[in-house]
Amino acid sequence: CPSTKALQSVALLTGATGRTGQLVTTKLLNQGFLVRIFCRDEEKARQTFGLNPNIEFCCGDLSSTQDIEEAFKSKKQLTHVVFMAGGEGADYNIVNFLGLKAFAEKAELCDSIKHFVVISSAWATRPYSIAGLLFNSMYQDTVPMASHYLGEQALRSAACKTNGRLNYMILRAGGLNEDDRYAKKYPDAYAKGLTYQQGDNFDFLGIAGRPGMCRSQLADAVVSCINVQGRYTFEVTGSGNFERTDSSFYKSFEEDKVLIASLDSNRHEEIITAMHTQAVGQLKTMAFAASAGSIALVAHYGWLQGICFVLTMDAIILMIWSVFLTKQQAL
């Protein structure tokens, strides 16, 4: 990519034909962006967005180095990257880790690109937590949460090599719902703003027991941070006090200084080993809690209830443990 200043904002998008991606694309076009859509099915993309002089299409796959090279060869200088690939049917290791890594490394070398936005996932650093294992059990050959985190680290690493030129925003979405269902079920929450927090703090039962957010809210969050100055990682969901279009919300938070400082020691294998250790520790804690609970039930209700409780908890622990062992080799 040439290094001269771009005259207009041009965003390279992945996942633009997805449910959230379509909303983000439309909002960027309405803000005057030119968009270059990297997609697997160009015909579907053209049917989705129609004839629009402000859209370029580039057909390719995130598993192909050559296709990714072509994605960055826009007619006009790229200034932004918005990475939204993933979702149903995706190979998370190829898309959210290796694909994001390849895009980040290309953005690192492209002087005209100043901003990079990624939709990641809650529990990204806890793929083997109880919530993560339950979610991961839906996928046969991959660990979505771990792939998201490895992709995040690849972006941080690439940004660190640009001498402050490449800004990024990583949005870990939690509790995502479809708009129509969300508006009907949680009309009050639909009208509220967004919640941003840093770290990896979402609780599974908390997500399950509260409204979460809808896709249009997530799209607003993506577009609102499109020109962020700095490097940030946020968990984002609904029912908060930040306006959906607030583009300065991040200024009251800290940049990713700790995460960036730890990059040198966070090799791929070490990250996975630490996550495995975390999982084993949580499963041991569950086993201890089950034993303590059974003793309490025996003391209060009798042997039958205690034995039933132990057998039930053992079955749950064995199920989660089997998922863990299956997923252990996925990355």
TrEMBL record:
<feature type="domain" description="NAD(P)-binding">
    <location>
        <begin position="15"/>
        <end position="183"/>
    </location>
</feature>
<dbReference type="Pfam" id="PF13460">
    <property type="entry name" value="NAD_binding_10"/>
</dbReference>
<keyword id="KW-1133">Transmembrane helix</keyword>
<keyword id="KW-0812">Transmembrane</keyword>
<feature type="transmembrane region" description="Helical">
    <location>
        <begin position="303"/>
        <end position="325"/>
    </location>
</feature>
<protein>
    <recommendedName>
        <fullName>NAD(P)-binding domain-containing protein</fullName>
    </recommendedName>
</protein>
<keyword id="KW-0472">Membrane</keyword>
<dbReference type="InterPro" id="IPR016040">
    <property type="entry name" value="NAD(P)-bd_dom"/>
</dbReference>
<dbReference type="InterPro" id="IPR036291">
    <property type="entry name" value="NAD(P)-bd_dom_sf"/>
</dbReference>
